[in-house]
């Protein structure tokens, strides 16, 4: 795939239905409205057909996604949402539990299903994979949904009625709330929208900058939109329901914290009502207002003016310099040394594993499923979010004695292809990155008397805080635990 292809993004809106995440392409997604409309039922309709409602003089049929997918029924309320899709002149509403995020998806993150020329029997047209393999989102085909049996269609006739508007530009925006005011942000100016992660209070903090966060290895500032728009600061401790809108200023991403993300809407550019000019020194960043029948007015943000504000550019510049320094440092490390981030744990002795191989660290479970006839190092299995995970006792694996006192055990979750393992350790002590000259061969004195398995898997040692820490080869360890490791590796 060419470099240019990697730079192309597709925008999707994602939604939740009974903890299952679905995505709809923004080209098919007209807008998202709350489920607080009067819904008229239609006699003799399928169980998944909820009814119809009126939206700006258009009749919208609504599909209950839980009923369509035969999920557990729930009582819907105004916090639920209806995604309005528009395909081939047909509008249709899809009722979900809630909205999730706005996603910008690269081509290599999207897999399209091939039904070999047959008519698909499912509305799922593909998948989006994010965060390595930790998040799998199913892509819904809006065209498939509009062709469901016994669903009335309301075709858009506005183009033939109002010829003068046919040539006028339309655009889409994300609407969100801040201090009970509804704002609009052009969708092409946004990279993505996420829940509020951990925000670190640092030296870049100012009246408008809440701190910094890390997104997929890149540090970015978090700007308080409430402070920009109203002069009143948000409380970092009260982040439930809040969202971070990620945008890019040049190459540096910036996050804007808002109270809540409302919907996706499409509007005619000529419908934008201008706001008065408050002068060159004004911090007012809205370029106009969009009025929609039965909804709060939308103050449309001039994102170019927003991105030029010193309150935004200053923290973005400081953190961009820090990111450049980190990149340069990593390049310098690469000249003869590749830094590795290690997780230090203990089972009678301190040793380290590559942190990238550990997906999470959890407490020892209260319920374990025993495995009869298994190896001595297999403790049993347990259910981790509907995934069966096998517990491996590293003491038994390497022939180590049991401790005199029962430790507060931790489990390191390791995922390899289709296998999920939990490595049983006494404690988790530290995380650090190796430095040039800190990695050495395994000292012979430490290895004396150790089991053969121990000597084969402890491939190197690193000096950390004046102490020697053995580094274990995770591939060698998994090869020892999983008999079919080489077959899996060859099939990858």
Report on this model:
With 492 residues, this protein is an alpha+beta fold. 17% of the residues lie in helices and 42% in strands. Strand 27 and strand 28 (387-393) form a beta hairpin. The two termini are 20 Å apart. The model is unreliable at 1-7, 158-167, 276-283 and 484-492 (pLDDT under 50).
How is this structure best summarized?
By secondary structure, the protein is of the alpha+beta class. It has 12 helices and 34 strands.
List its salient traits.
single chain; six-stranded mixed beta sheet; 492 residues
> How much beta, percentage-wise?
35-45%
Structural class: alpha+beta
Quaternary structure annotation = single chain
Number of helices: 12
* Mean pLDDT over all positions: 78
**Spatial sequence of strands, sheet with the most strands:** 8-1-2-11-10-9
Number of strands: 34
Query: Which geometry do the CA atoms define?
Result: globular
Helix content: 10-25%
Rg computed from alpha carbons, rounded to a whole number of angstroms: 27 Å
Distance between the termini: 20 Å
Largest sheet: 6 strands, mixed
- Show unreliable segments: 1-7, 158-167, 276-283, 484-492
Spell out the blueprint of helices and strands:
Layout: H1 3-7, E1 10-17, E2 20-25, E3 29-34, E4 49-55, E5 58-64, H2 65-68, E6 81-87, E7 90-96, E8 98-105, E9 110-112, E10 124-130, E11 135-140, H3 142-146, E12 154-155, H4 158-161, E13 170-178, E14 181-186, E15 192-195, E16 209-215, E17 218-224, H5 225-230, E18 243-249, E19 252-258, E20 260-268, E21 273-274, E22 286-290, E23 298-301, H6 303-307, H7 310-333, E24 341-346, E25 350-354, E26 360-363, E27 378-384, E28 387-393, H8 394-397, E29 410-416, E30 419-425, E31 427-433, E32 439-440, H9 444-447, H10 452-457, E33 458-464, E34 467-472, H11 474-481, H12 485-491
């Amino acid at each position: 795939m060419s470099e240019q292809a990697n730079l192309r993004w597709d925008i999707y809106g994602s939604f939740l239905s009974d903890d299952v995440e679905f995505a709809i392409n923004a080209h098919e997604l007209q807008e998202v409205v709350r489920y607080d409309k009067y819904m008229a039922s239609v006699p003799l309709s399928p169980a998944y057909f909820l009814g119809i409602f009126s939206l700006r003089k258009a009749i919208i049929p609504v599909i209950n996604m839980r009923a369509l997918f035969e999920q557990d029924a729930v009582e819907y309320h105004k916090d639920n949402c209806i995604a309005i899709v528009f395909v081939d002149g047909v509008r249709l509403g899809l009722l979900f539990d809630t909205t999730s995020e706005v996603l910008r998806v690269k081509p290599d993150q999207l897999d399209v299903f091939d039904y070999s020329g047959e008519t698909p029997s499912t509305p799922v047209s593909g998948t989006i994979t994010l965060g390595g393999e930790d998040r799998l989102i199913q892509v819904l085909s809006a065209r498939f949904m509009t062709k469901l049996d016994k669903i009335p269609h309301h075709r858009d006739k506005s183009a033939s009625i109002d010829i003068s508007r046919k040539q006028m530009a339309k655009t889409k925006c994300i609407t969100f709330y801040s201090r009970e005011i509804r704002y609009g942000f052009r969708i092409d100016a946004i990279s993505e929208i996420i829940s509020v992660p951990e925000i670190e209070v640092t030296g870049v903090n100012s009246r408008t900058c809440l701190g910094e966060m890390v997104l997929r290895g890149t540090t970015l500032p978090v700007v308080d939109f409430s402070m920009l728009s109203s002069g009143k600061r948000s409380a970092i401790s009260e982040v439930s329901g809040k969202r971070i809108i990620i945008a890019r200023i040049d190459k540096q991403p910036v996050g804007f914290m808002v109270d809540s993300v409302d919907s996706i809407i499409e509007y005619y550019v000529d419908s934008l009502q201008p706001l008065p000019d408050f002068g060159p020194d004004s911090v007012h960043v809205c370029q106009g207002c969009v009025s929609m029948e039965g909804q709060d007015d939308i103050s449309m943000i001039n994102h170019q003016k927003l991105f030029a504000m010193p309150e935004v550019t200053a923290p973005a510049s400081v953190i961009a310099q820090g990111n450049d320094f980190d990149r340069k440092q990593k390049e310098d490390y690469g000249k003869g040394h590749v830094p590795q981030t290690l997780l230090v744990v203990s089972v009678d002795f301190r040793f380290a594993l590559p942190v990238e191989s550990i997906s999470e660290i959890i407490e020892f479970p209260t319920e374990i499923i025993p495995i009869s006839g298994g190896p001595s190092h297999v403790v049993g299995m347990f259910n981790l979010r509907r995934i069966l995970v096998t517990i491996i006792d590293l003491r038994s694996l390497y022939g180590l004695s049991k401790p005199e006192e029962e430790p507060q055990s931790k489990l390191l979750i390791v995922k390899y292809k289709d296998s999920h393992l939990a490595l049983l350790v006494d404690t988790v002590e530290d995380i650090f990155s190796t430095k040039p000259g800190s990695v050495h061969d395994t000292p012979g004195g430490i290895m004396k008397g150790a089991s053969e398995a121990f000597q084969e898997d402890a491939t190197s040692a690193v000096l950390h805080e004046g102490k020697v820490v053995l580094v274990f080869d995770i591939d060698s360890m998994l090869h020892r635990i999983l008999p079919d490791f080489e077959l899996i590796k060859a099939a990858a």
